[in-house]
Amino acid sequence: MASTNKTEYLSLNAWVESDRPQRADFNSDNSIIDSALGAHLENDDLHLTSTEKARISRPFTVVSYVGTGAASLKVTLPLVAQAVLVYREDMPFTVYDSTSGINKVYAAVSFSGGGATAGLKLSGNGYITVTQSTAAVNGIMHCLNETGGQYKVIAFR
After folding, report:
1. Burial of 109 from C-beta contacts in 10 A (0-12 / 13-18 / 19+)
2. What pLDDT digit, counting tens, does each position of 29-79 carry?
3. Any bridge partners for residue 75, and if so which?
4. What sign has the CA pseudo-torsion 6, 9, 11, 13?
5. Which of 5, 50, 64, 86 is the least buried, fewest Cβ under 10 Å from its Cβ?
6. Which residues share a beta bridge with 128?
7. Beta strands in 13-143 (DSSP E)
């Protein structure tokens, strides 16, 4: 015999002293609980995917590289980045040489889906490409791969 009362949310049996529970009542309650819990666990709107968990637990990484002096250099990242900041460790982001009228730029940012400063390209395949200017264009040289320069890359998931 089913219970006289039912629980509010799942309508499980809530017996009173005069009720006579039967095995079928317990099996029915277990089935209701299993269905409700299973639907909850499979609901991606309520739970994070493994990719989302990785973003939260490791939202960024830092990589170093040494400049080669080549016009461009491909730097592999340990993740597929959504945003990247690159800078030379021992230099300010820009240096202005008043005698030549040239701004040397030692930092750049780039974002997935567009938006970047010159000198840096973010790939959707886990790497970036940095450039080293050989001559100034409009008074600017991009210096993200100077020979022997120590650079840091901060990549965000």
Report:
1. middle
2. 899 999 998 888 888 777 777 777 777 777 899 999 999 999 999 999 998
3. 128
4. negative
5. 50
6. 75, 122
7. 13-14, 60-66, 72-76, 83-88, 94-97, 102-105, 107-111, 120-122, 127-131, 140-142
What's the whole-model pTM score?
0.66
- Cβ neighbors of 94 (< 8 A, separation 6 or more) are 103, 104, 105, 106, 107
* Residue 75, token pair as written in the block: 């730097």
Q: Which two tokens stand for residue 112?
A: 């997935």
Calpha distance 81→152 (Å, rounded): 15
Which DSSP state fits 132? Answer: B
End-to-end CA, the chain: 56
Residues 88 and 109: their CA atoms lie apart, in Å, by: 13
Q: For residue 20, how far is the Cα from the chain centroid?
A: 56
Q: What is the pLDDT of residue 93?
A: 97
To 5 degrees, how large is the angle CA 47–CA 48–CA 53?
150
